[in-house]
Specification:
The longest helix is centred in the C-terminal third of the chain and has 39 residues. The two termini are 12 Å apart. Strands 1-2 form a two-stranded antiparallel ribbon. The protein is mainly α. Helix content is 65%, strand content 3%. The protein is built from 16 helices and two strands. It has two domains: 137 residues, no CATH class; 238 residues, MetI-like fold.
């Protein structure tokens, strides 16, 4: 088992490397100049400064962000271009120089050359750190342009809240939906099965934004029922400094109920129908007839044999919890004002805070890869034949 898990882990390393390459390319080619954005936001509330002072600030931030380094380990250029072209950070000056080289370069414009820069480049610094940076392998995604704070500081608490809601919702969905699915498969013509199928189909057809607004209108509306708070994840005045962890959880619990319902209902409906369908298929197989002939109880047949052999589709659904931390939470977090990854992603996109956006994309990709690895391990645990593939 461990050998299989280790083998699958090593297969995912090239994928992680590809994810970092894609994230860096997106960040390097994002529109706008991060240095200008930082300088302008730094001087937005003060007096006009001289051009010399602005140039000093630009050089400072270029060095802090590592933009005075070559882009990658190597570059493919025209022979007419100098090796230190990357040191020019002014876009207008760079365009003018390239135009002059194209005019005066002659035949050298048509001869390519490969320049090796070694490990002193922007990608290596972004990935492994260096020059006041720890690199993304140690959780350093750089600095937020709009907030001027480390990206990891901004996202740390957001990620915790998004993961909490996603994991709790998927656990609730499984705990509730598997017994429902088993009972539906056990007696598909019963009144319970028919009512459940109708309710589950109705829930699954409702979009999350409609369900969120409906829950707020019904249970967080003073004109109808003001049972739960309408937004946030804790009291407006915050937690008491002397409060224990259990007290903080109890204080946040009323704020979490409506969002959890909104997170859970679609998964509950889907998993219930999937469980019922999978177990119904298993009940028609020969090994179930053999188990009945041996005198095994119906409970043992359903829970120990049929459920285990129909678990592969359920594991596939379980593996979607981590990729859904960002993508599936944007609408719900916006409706309930939950300070999670989804709401932060919307803010970063609106403010063109590309380091935060790229960090969210990278984290989502890593969580997706981790979920697939977890699913592969669970597949092998449920069905030992998979370990030989």
């Amino acid at each position: 088992m461990w050998r299989y898990a280790l083998k699958r882990f090593f297969w995912f390393i090239p994928t992680l490397f590809a994810v970092t390459i894609i994230g860096f390319v997106l960040l390097a080619n994002a529109p706008g100049d991060p240095v200008n954005s930082l300088v302008l936001s730094s001087n937005s509330g003060g007096s006009m400064q001289s051009i010399k002072d602005l140039e000093i600030q630009k050089k400072y931030w270029s060095k802090q962000l590592g933009l005075d380094l070559p882009l990658f380990y190597f570059s493919v250029q025209r022979l007419s271009e100098p090796d230190t072209l990357y040191k020019i950070t002014d876009e207008a000056q760079l365009k003018k120089l390239k135009a002059d080289l194209k005019i005066n370069g002659g035949f050298k414009n048509y001869i390519p050359k490969i320049t090796w820069y070694g490990f002193h480049n922007q990608y290596h610094r972004w990935l492994f750190g260096g020059n006041n940076s720890n690199g993304i392998v140690r959780g350093d995604f750089g600095m937020s342009i709009s907030k001027k704070e480390p990206v990891i500081v901004i996202l740390k608490d957001k990620l915790i809240w998004s993961l909490t809601f996603s994991i709790l919702s998927i656990l609730l969905a499984y705990v509730i939906s598997i017994p429902i699915g088993i009972r539906m498969a056990k007696d598909p013509e019963s009144r319970f099965s028919k009512i459940s199928q109708f309710v589950l189909f109705l829930l699954y057809s409702m979009p999350s934004f409609f369900m969120g607004v409906l829950l707020l209108m019904l249970f967080a509306n003073p004109d109808v029922l003001s049972v739960f708070p309408p937004s946030g994840i804790k009291p407006i005045e915050g937690y008491d400094d002397q409060s224990s962890l259990f007290t903080k959880i109890c204080d946040s619990l009323p704020y979490m109920i409506l969002p959890l319902i909104c997170y859970t209902y679609a998964s509950l409906a889907f998993i219930s129908r999937l469980t019922a369908t999978s177990i119904t298929e298993q009940l028609g197989l020969d090994y179930i007839k053999t188990a009945k002939a041996k005198g095994l109880s119906e409970k043992t047949i359903l829970w120990k044999h049929a459920l285990k052999n129909s678990a592969l589709p359920l594991i596939t659904v379980f593996s979607s919890v981590f990729p859904g931390v960002v993508g599936g939470s944007v609408i719900i977090e916006s409706i309930f004002t939950i300070p999670g990854m989804g709401l932060e992603t919307v803010r970063a996109i609106i403010s063109h805070d590309y380091p935060v956006v790229i960090a969210v994309i990278t984290l989502s990709s890593v969580l997706t890869i981790f979920s697939y690895l977890l699913a592969d391990i669970l597949y092998a645990w449920v069905d030992p034949r998979i370990r030989t593939y």
